[in-house]
């Protein structure tokens, strides 16, 4: 599980990240990046969002969030997160196309997004 200090939790932090409008999209998952870091020693916080419009069932939405979060955690553990550590915050947004995908497919998507950002 991703530690609490690495997650975005406040509504204002999510709004500030969305306001920057730096994003990319790949096969059902979007990645939004916040402002660049001023101090390279700061940590990058990550948020995970799956809207109710994506799927009616909370079980499906939560599963997609868990898959994205766990893939990000494993990449963070291996220090294979690409350019994402240059930003203060990032947000992964799951869409309807990603609902039925497996753990490995989501892993490929997350890695590709982190390389693009």
Write structural notes for this entry:
This protein has helices at about 10-20, 60-75, 105-115, and strands spanning about 20-25, 30-35, 45-50, 90-95. It has about 120 residues and is of the alpha+beta class. The protein has a 4-stranded mixed beta sheet with strand order 1-2-4-3, with helices on both faces. Strand 1 (about 20-25) and strand 2 form a beta hairpin. Helix 2 packs across helix 3 (about 105-115).
Distance between the termini: 23 Å
Class of secondary structure makeup: alpha+beta
Enumerate the strands of the largest sheet in spatial order, edge to edge or round the barrel. Answer: 1-2-4-3
Radius of gyration: 13 Å
What is the number of strand segments? Answer: 4
CATH class: Alpha Beta
Per the CATH scheme, the topology name is: Ribosomal Protein S5, domain 2
Count helical runs.
3
Mean pLDDT, all residues: 92
Oligomeric form of this entry?
single chain
Helix content: 25-40%
Which keywords apply here?
Ribosomal Protein S5, domain 2; globular; 4 strands; 3 helices; 117 residues; 4-stranded mixed sheet; alpha+beta
Outline:
With 117 residues, the protein is α+β, with helices and mostly antiparallel strands. It contains 3 helices and 4 strands. The chain has one domain (4-116): Ribosomal Protein S5, domain 2 (2-Layer Sandwich).
Secondary structure layout plus pairing:
Blueprint: H1 11-20, E1 22-26, E2 29-33, E3 45-50, H2 58-77, E4 89-94, H3 103-116
Parallel strand pairs: 3-4
Antiparallel strand pairs: 1-2, 2-4
Helix pairs in contact: 2-3
